[in-house]
Amino acid sequence: MIHLKTKVHDSQTLEFKIGYETEPNLSVSEFKVDLWMFIPGNLEANERTYAANTFYEDLKTRLRLITPHYTLAQLAEANALPYCRLHDAMRYPENLEAFRHEICMICNILKSSLRDDMEKILNETDATRREEFLSSFIQTLREVMNIYHNLTKETVALPAESLRNYQRGDEFLCQTIRHYLYCRTKEFNKKELNLYLLELQNYMESQGYTLPQPKESKQSRNFLHRYATLKKFIESDLYIRTHNKHSGFLLEQLMFMLSAGMAMGFALMINFYTKDAANKFSLPLILLMIVSYMFKDRIKDWVRNLFHDRSGEIFFDRRQRLEMNGIDIGSSRQNFEYLTPDKVAQSIQEFKQRSMELDEPDDIQREEVVHYCRTIRLQRKLIQRLSRHPLRGVDEICRLNLNRLMRWMDNPNITVYHSAEDGNVERFNAPRTYEIHFVMGNILNGKSNFFSYRVELNRDGIIALKDLS
């Protein structure tokens, strides 16, 4: 199963979160994701100015394990699996790594549950039920944090390093809860929520945790740095390392040798024929030999290009192996290319047309079509060996920076004119925007799904992202 979420990460960057969930009945699951970008021709994107290496510099990808799914209500039970795993780790205090892993997993699970439960509340349209859900949400959150804080009675006998990891987990949870709830106070405008945030802030002050302060830029800067450091520490047990590898080298060289051999064979056949049909050192013989060598080089290039076009499953821009804790859990392949309009499937063109706000004639509209492909193979049993928690697959977080495509854009505001009824001319600024169309498709077990997006942007950055699937 493949899940896709898209959002604007910042003014110049799009974020695609793709979830690859392995099939329970398959030992190896293979996923394929395709991305087609339709870039306006006046942005001067081509194989010279926006080549594959440039695209990969602008594309930042991270792979991490999918966090095990729990609801907050499930985590409000003291005998929930994450707490049981932590209690098991406490039985062997000398195993510092096991305790650290369980603390990190509890924090990651709670963060994911907090996000999912908050989305359910926001998706509720009935105002009364929404308020009820929020009250229940805050009460459940109190119970979950009480369970975690009660662990202090059991952690006293643990080594100093384990105690520090427990406190790091506590600070991270408090910071994460504050972040999620403060971002939603305007949407809820509920006194109970504000009281809980004040209660949480007083607890953090009593523990000496870093907090931002108005008019104290240094302390606020330290707060952001501290939270980023804690986030990196907690999520370190989920991120997967990628190692580049170069495979298919021998086959590639054999194909090049074969193309050179075919071209040389053609030239030799011409030479043998002309030696029998013409006199030695005659002008026709010399001309035929020159022509044969001219065609020899062309034939070699044609055959090489033919092999390269027909070997898309063998030759990729990048090949990587996915490794975590010394275990290779799968592999990844990436490819980037420019397509001519006739090589873009009709179904992709139709999805692209859905994202167009204005009907533009094909003979006027000039676009460059970029195709990016990512294939991932995952081994379910090896993934499950990484933790005692139920792991289902891998999340890929892709961030595509569009800054290079903005450099040839006009001013964000253009002066336009309008004649009023009294004969006077009105001058005012109109926003100048550009549109980049994205079509994403994923293939799993022969089944395809497609998604269409339109990105509106100008030289100052991204204005809007619209999902038109």
What's the arrangement of secondary structure elements?
Blueprint: E1 2-10, E2 13-21, E3 28-40, H1 52-58, E4 59-65, H2 72-75, H3 81-90, H4 96-123, H5 127-149, H6 152-155, H7 160-182, H8 185-188, H9 191-207, H10 217-235, E5 241-244, H11 249-277, H12 283-309, E6 318-324, E7 327-339, H13 346-354, E8 367-379, H14 380-384, E9 393-401, H15 403-406, E10 413-419, E11 425-431, E12 434-444, E13 447-458, E14 461-467
Antiparallel strand pairs: 1-2, 2-9, 3-8, 3-12, 4-9, 5-6, 6-7, 7-8, 10-11, 12-13, 13-14
Helix pairs in contact: 3-4, 4-5, 4-7, 7-9, 7-10, 11-12
What does this structure look like?
Helix content is 45%, strand content 27%. It has 469 residues and is an alpha+beta fold. It has three domains: 2-59 and 334-467, Immunoglobulin-like; 72-237, no CATH class; 249-309. The strands form three sheets. Strands 5-6-7-8-3-12-13-14 form an eight-stranded antiparallel beta sheet. The radius of gyration is 30 Å and the shape is globular. The mean pLDDT is 82.
Question: CATH homologous superfamily of the largest domain - what is it?
Answer: Immunoglobulins
CATH architecture annotation of the largest domain: Sandwich
Count of helical stretches = 15
Number of strands: 14
Beta fraction of the residues? Answer: 25-35%
Spatial sequence of strands, sheet with the most strands? 5-6-7-8-3-12-13-14
The CATH topology name of the largest domain reads Immunoglobulin-like
